[in-house]
């Protein structure tokens, strides 16, 4: 069975849909079994609401730019058809989810949770993997060697493309959940010789001074983020006190 995922991003008129702000751009990238396909969904929208100056500085879109674009109601069915029954991957999912659920609610349509098989917040995923560190999309692009040199302004489709690359890099190795390429075909008999069973000596690699300094820096960030409850530092301290 194919696993279908949709990497999704939006741009909006402001930060709070509860104050009337609306979605002005949607960008989606399709992944099948963790591989990007050629299917994309991208649309600009007329929000019928004034764009905040701060938001415009981020994405560069003005109300004049969007005056001739369709309204969300006009594209809602095709958008639902694209994302339906897929797993969504969204960076800071609560933000985009809140806006899209609001757009659907205004039309009397069900929320994302009822239209899709699940939503993964890649920001939470990154925070779990990199506690105490910054996890913006730009930072993650740098961390995982994803080229974001073309990202002068935020754009939903571009950000979805970057997020797709970052997500695949962050979760590299999960392909084995779909196919274990190292496993022999069914029915294959493995033969071993005494040489195969010989235990090889282990090579011990010591951390360099710069690696130790980086390790200490990360632990300090975790300690600050956790208000002093860093398990590793606590354990190290207890070990250091032992005779």
Task: Give an account of the 3D structure.
This protein has 243 residues and is α/β, with parallel strands linked by helices. The protein folds into two domains: 4-177, 2-Layer Sandwich (Nucleotidyltransferase, domain 5); 209-241, no CATH class. The protein has helices spanning 53-59, 63-66, 72-83, 93-106, 112-115, 122-129, 137-143, 156-170, 209-225, 231-241; strands at 4-12, 23-32, 35-44, 87-90, 118-121. It has a five-stranded mixed beta sheet with strand order 3-2-1-4-5. The radius of gyration is 23 Å and the shape is globular. The termini are far apart.
Taking the sheet with the most strands, its summary is: 5 strands, mixed
Just name the CATH architecture of the largest domain: 2-Layer Sandwich
Radius of gyration: 23 Å
> What is the name of the CATH superfamily of the largest domain?
Ribonuclease H-like superfamily/Ribonuclease H
Annotation field: number of helices: 10
Taken together, the total number of domains comes to 2
Residue share in β-strands: 15-25%
CATH class of the largest domain: Alpha Beta
């Amino acid at each position: 069975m194919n696993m279908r995922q949709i990497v999704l991003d939006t741009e909006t008129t402001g930060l709070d849909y509860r104050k009337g702000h609306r979605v002005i751009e949607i960008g989606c990238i399709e992944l099948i079994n963790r591989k990007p396909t050629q299917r994309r969904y991208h649309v600009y929208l007329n929000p019928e609401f004034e764009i905040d100056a701060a938001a415009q500085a981020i994405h560069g879109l003005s109300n004049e730019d969007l005056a001739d674009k369709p309204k969300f109601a006009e594209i809602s069915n095709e958008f639902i058809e694209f994302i339906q029954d897929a797993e969504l991957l969204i960076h800071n999912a609560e933000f985009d989810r809140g806006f899209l659920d609001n757009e659907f609610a205004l039309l009397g349509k069900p929320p994302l949770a009822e239209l899709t098989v699940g939503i993964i917040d890649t920001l939470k995923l990154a925070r779990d993997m990199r506690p105490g560190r910054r996890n913006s999309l730009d930072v993650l692009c740098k961390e995982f060697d994803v080229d974001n040199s073309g990202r002068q302004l935020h754009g939903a489709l571009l950000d979805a493309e970057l997020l797709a690359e970052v997500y695949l890099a962050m979760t590299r190795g999960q392909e084995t959940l779909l196919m274990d390429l190292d496993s022999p075909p069914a029915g294959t008999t493995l033969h071993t010789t005494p040489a195969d069973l010989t235990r090889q000596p282990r090579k011990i690699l010591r951390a360099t001074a710069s690696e130790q300094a980086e390790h200490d820096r990360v632990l300090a960030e975790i300690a600050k983020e956790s208000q002093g409850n860093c398990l590793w530092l606590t354990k190290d301290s207890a070990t250091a006190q032992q005779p």
